[in-house]
Amino acid sequence: MKSGAVLLTAPDDDFTMDKRPFFGQDMSIMAEGKVIYERAEEPEVPPEYQDQYFDREAGAERKDFKLPNTTETVRYTADEIERRMNAVGWPEDQAYRVRTALDEMFSNAVGHGNLHLPSLSADQSIGAEINRTIKEHPELRDQTHVYVTIEALDEDKIVLRVRDEGAGFPYDQDNVPDPTAEENLLKPNGRGLYFITQFFDEASWEKGGTEIRVVKHRHHAEQPVR
Asked: pTM of the prediction?
């Protein structure tokens, strides 16, 4: 994963937000429909994680991942899916938008789903809280898992299913808090659902909120990017 800035444009991204830590990257959302993600330098996926994504015996990429409760898993799995999208011809900005939403989706599944982390205060981040929890209770790392399935991926569409082993939550699509509203700017939580609903074309929660299926269609030059 190289470092640098990726410029994303979308008609509905007409808000301003200050920079905030966001796992391995800083997130800046600027005015006039421009979204800039400043990537931090990230290492290549180490061998012990590569086996989660590649079946050496079959000589093929895996489409089903069973992930432990770590922030490394969140980052590397999002990286791997972005890499596969780029490999089949997705534009870098669109693939990175998906990666950004997946960061949030996976971290929510690990933190709020499997580890039952409460709502966070303004000076907390879910990644830091996951790391702290696993450091204090290492047995929780592999006690539950996040299951990711790539149902479809080609040059025009990606379909993913993500399931955690938590208690679920009562999802209300009409009541997703807007993190760009003034009263929510200092709240680190609530961004995951917003990213998912904004960055994917379809999102549906199942099994009491423990499983989500998302669909993203590639937008071509003549189409507006969402």
From this structure: 0.73
